[in-house]
Each structure stands twice: as structure tokens, then as C-alpha cells.
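Incident review: delayed structure delivery

Summary: a single-chain prediction request sat in the queue longer than the usual turnaround. Root cause was a stuck worker, restarted by the on-call engineer. No data loss occurred. The affected request and its eventual output are reproduced below so the record is complete for anyone auditing the incident later.

Affected input:
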Amino acid sequence: MKALEFNEEFDAIAKTEAAKLKACESLAQTKIQLPGLAKGTTKPRLQILKADPDITVADLRDILAQSDEFYDRGVPARLTQSKAGGAAIQILSPDVLILLAHQLCRPFEAKQAQDGCWTERNTRLPKDIATMYLAWQGSWNLRPLNGIASAPMLSEDGSISSGEGYDASSGIWQEDVPDVSNLIPIRPTRDDAQASLLLLRETFATFCFADAQTVIDPVTKITKIDLAFQPARDESAFLVALLTAVCRPTLRLAPGILLHAAPLSGAGAGKGLLARCIAQIAFGRDPHAVTAGPDNQELEKRIAAELIQGNPIVFLDNLNNRAFKSDQLASAITERPARVRVFGKLDMVALNTCALIMLTGNGLTVTEDLARRFIAIELDPKTEDPESRRFHIDIRAEVSKRRSELLAACLTIWRWGRLQNLESGLPLGSFEQWAKWVRDPLLALGCQDPVARVHEAKSRDNQRQQVAEFFNAWYEHFGDQPVALRELPETLNALIDPQNRGRQFVAAQVQKLTGTRLSGYLLTRQRPPGSWGVTTYALKVTSPVPPTLNGDSLASTPPYAVQESEASGPMPPMPPMPLPVAKEVTAASHPQPWRMKL
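Output delivered after worker restart:
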């Protein structure tokens, strides 16, 4: 009897303990609300549920989303104040997020004491919770941040906004934007725009733009631009660059700015100084220079970091004696959003950037896809020792002091152009808005079109020059006849393969060039007629007249020379036929002197 009573009592105790254990587990899985436990603090409470991290991460997201400090920059970021002055964007790491989370809320865990009462205990936000939050792309509920700007926001109708703080319509943080509305006419006239242009030219008249007409100032004895002449190509490109910088925060896309001088003797020409003057007028701050680093991989990482940090200018300095190329910059200039790799991760994020891209260097050119994405400004001090020149004012301090005046002059030209129906200059793909807002008003005021220099930049591209020479030599040998690659002479192979890596390399290079239009030719590829046939290639003439730039031919190619020969006299005598039957070729179908394929 006693054993039976003992067993019943034991079962009852076991059931009671099991119920308690189940209740504890249930409470540990849910958020508990215990009155009076948050006394003495105004921070929101964040309960850490180890078994339900999704609930904890969602609660952390809601707390951060309520703060004005955090934004979506492709990755979570926050605005900070840099030591140099001005706002900066800080990308959040797990450790930084843990620190900031404790400043905004009070993480805690719920514990049940031995007496059955629940208590809370302050705890550290687990690092895995911070990592989960940062990886929760698309669910942060943060406002997008496209960049930082100290220039006014502009509208299509010519209106100008000089706000402060976050601009929701553009996703840009504005700070230190001067109010220049009282300095800009409501409806500027052409005379107002001309006066503004003259003010800008006078301010920068001592810079050594390579092709500018110059005079010696009788008072200061300093060489200056002769303002009696219209701006030449390099000065025009500078004026376009300056107005591009002022409008850049509002422009969807804009070309980059390339400041270059001659190798060796170009050091001290004023490239970096001119870049900093542009930045002072447009953004009221000096750009921080970024060097290229030891290799292209490191350069791409630095560019990606600069783009993510959202500075108004990405300024790559001292890119000396190189043909510069960067897939990262090419994408950032012409794509919105651009895909950028986050440093230290394999993740690619979509990034809207409004940064102005500026490059400086001696002997610097841009190659491949960047050739059409940059406005080039060449400086030539016309001396072996540019640093020894004397100037009567500190132009950098002068520009900083007169920022509002110079900014108003730029915006007067811009507003005048917005209110006019101006004739457009040369087309430049991807930059139609930039052309209307920036380039066309300056063209109407007498500046030269900087887009014309894009063709010059392409002609300087070493790779394009090599391919153009290869096409020219090909046409001299074969005309427009289909040719198998095994028929190419060694002199032709050497042009495409100067290191003599073999016919397989030549075949791969020629196949990559299929469909290329260059130097007035188009390379075509013909598949073999059967299983045992041979693939052939042929050049077709695409330009009836040679392309020119300011009256000078970019390339002297055989088709053009042949056309001149045909116009000046009859076709030269035909050589003896080595075969009894040959294909008839006429001058109408073959612009090259008659050739016969053996």
C-alpha cells in the first residue's frame, strides 16, 4: 500500500516538474513583458532570443530604422563627421553595429530564478545577430543614400534648391549649400550668361591650357589667356568640367574629367590645383587624393571603396605614364545603379553614385571603354621647370573666398541654357541630359565641343592603333577578299602578335575582333561551307571618306588612297595571269587595284 502511494506521489511530482520545464521553454521562446524592469532608462529594450534569431533581427531592424543616423548604401551605413570637416559615410561592420546598437537600445535576456520568478539580465548583442542583420539585403527599411553634396539641387525647369539635410527626392545628403538665389537672375539673358562666362575665364586665366592664345600681363608680367579670343579646346573643356561638377549631384550620369600634361616636364603644371579649385567651387571642400596602388587589383578595390563611401569626388591622382583602364569606373560612370563589390566580401551590391570622377597624371591617357567617358583637359606650361613660375595671388584661397560668386556664375549659365531652345552639339551616348544641361549652353556662348576630343582620345589608344595598323596592312595584302588565317603572312602576324606567341594566339585575337569597326573597316567572319572547310575572314570598307578631326585625317588607310588613285588616272596595267581562269573584279566592286586570289 505504501509503495503504491509513493509511486502516485512520485508521478505527480514528475508531472509538475515537466509542466514547469515546458513553461520555461515556452517563455524562453517568446518576448516577455515584465513590468518595472526598465526603470531608469529611456532606451528601447531588445530581447535576445537565441532560439528565434529571426525575431531578434527583426526587432533590431525596427530600432535602427527609426534612427535618422542609418541609411541604405547598398549595405547599411551611417553618416558621420570626418576630421577634415563635412559628412562622411561609414559602412557598418558587425563590431561597429554592435557598438551602435548598444547606444540605441538595451539588449537583454530573460531568466527564471529558482523561486520561479522571471528576471531580465543585460547582455551583449551577439555578433551572429549583427552579421545576420547586415546580410538581410532588401529588408533593412532604411532610406537610400546616393551621396553627399554641397552644391544646390537643380530641376529641369531651371529652379534651384539650396536645402540642408536629407533630400528624399534625390536620396542625397546636403550640407553647407550656399544660398546663391539672390545672385542668379530669375530669367538670365544672353548678356548675363556671357558676363558669367567672362568672370570664370578671368578667374582662371593664369592656368596654362595647352592650346590657349596667351598674352603677358603688363602689370604682373604673368602669362595669361588672351580673353579677346574665344575659348580654345582645352579651356572649353575646363569650363565644361567646372559646370559638370556643379550640376553633378543632380545629373543622372556625367562623364569623368581627365587632367593631363606631358611626361616629365608636366610635373607642376597645375593639374591637382585645378582639380581642387573645381572641387572648392562645386562642393566647398578639397578632394582627398587616391593613388593607384601597386597593381590593378588594388586600384579596383580603392575605387570601389571610394564609390561606396559616397564622397562628392573620386579623385585619382598621379596616374603617370600609363594608359589607364578600369572596369569599375567604366560601370560607375555610365550605369545607374552600378554593381560594386564590397571590400572583404564576395557580395556585389547595386550602388547609385553621384560622384564626379577626376583623374590627373603626366603622360596619362584613358583606354578601351573609358576613352568615350572622359572630358580631357591638357595643360602645357611651356617650360622645363613649371614649379618655378611665379603668380601674384593664391588662386586656391581666392576661389575658396569667392565660392558663392563663382558658383552663381556657373548656375547663371546653366539656368540660361535651361530656359533656351539651344542647338545640340555632337552626340555622346549615355550622357544626353549632361549634354543639354552642361555642354550645349557653353557651346552657344562660343566654347568648343569637348566631345570632338573623344575621337582624338580613341586615336591615341595604343590598342586601337595596333588594330588599325593591322587592318590597314590586311587590306593592302588582300583587299576585301575572304582569307583563311593560315594565309596571313608573317609581317601581318607580327602586327597582332608582336611577341610571337604563335598562330593559335593570332587566331584567337582575330576571332575576338570579328564585328569590329575601326579605321574605316569592318572585319567579318565566314563559317566554313562544310565539315571539312576552313573559316575565312574579310575586311569591308565602311567609310566612303576618311574620318577627320579639325581637318586632319585620323588615319591614312588604303581605301582612301585607292580612291584618290582612281580619281587621278586609269587603273595600272594588269600583271600576267598565272592561272587560265580568274574571277573578274571591277573597280566598282573592288576599290583596290585589281588583284587575283591564287
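Verification: The chain has four domains: 1-27, 31-144, 172-455, 461-568.
Action items: add queue-age alerting; document worker restart procedure.
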